[in-house]
Write a structure and sequence with these properties.
alpha+beta; three-stranded antiparallel sheet; elongated
Length: 196
């Protein structure tokens, strides 16, 4: 039996969206939110943007973040220390230099295979990739159509949350001059390793 749609004002729609996001816990795609509210994507987006702004302006412990085509309620970073006092075993992500280097390669070259990562780094990267998958910063996004069908890796929504960006294309661009310097440095390092 289909129920008749009840018209809601913006305040009621915002409350409904808050209920959806709170209940789901994870991020929810904008299309799913709009469908649940039986309204257009643009109108839903407008209300979500207003809510996000309001959360930031008010003294609240939560904020509303956009993750590409999805939205999620999450706690504000400044309350992390207080939260770990109540959580017995908080999951701390310890990003070493090796993990950051590997994660940078995945973020900027995705989708990327482990072999491509190893070619860029010049060393085996099994442990680093596995650790990033364990931390939910990297995930399998498919397989390359090549012999052996190697796994392709890409970043996750957790990666976006962790680094405070809405989408991968918001990552800072590498200066072409510095990029060339890095390339020359890497080539010099490889030459030195080959001489040893």
């Amino acid at each position: 039996m289909r129920t008749e749609r009840v018209e809601m004002n913006d305040k009621e729609l915002a409350a409904a969206i808050e209920a959806i996001l709170f209940t789901m816990g994870d991020s929810v795609e904008i299309d799913r939110i709009a469908a649940a509210l039986e309204m257009g994507k643009a109108g839903t987006e407008r209300i979500l943007n207003e809510m996000a702004k309001r959360y930031e302006e008010e003294d609240r412990g939560i904020r509303l973040i956009r993750l590409e085509n999805a939205w999620q309620l999450c706690t504000k970073k400044q309350y992390y220390d207080i939260l770990i006092r109540i959580a017995r075993t908080p999951r701390r992500v310890n990003l070493t230099e090796v993990l950051m280097e590997t994660l940078s390669i995945v973020a900027y070259k995705q989708p990327v295979t482990k072999l491509e990562i190893e070619k860029i780094r010049g060393v085996k990267s099994d442990h680093a990739v596995n650790k990033l998958v364990e931390y939910n910063l990297v995930r399998e996004v498919g397989r390359l159509d090549a012999p052996g069908r190697p796994i392709l890796f890409g970043t996750t929504e957790e990666f976006l949350r962790h680094f405070g960006v809405d989408a991968v294309d918001e990552l800072p661009m590498v200066d072409p001059v510095r990029k060339e310097d890095f390339k020359l440095e890497a080539e010099k390092e490889i030459d030195q390793k080959l001489k040893v």
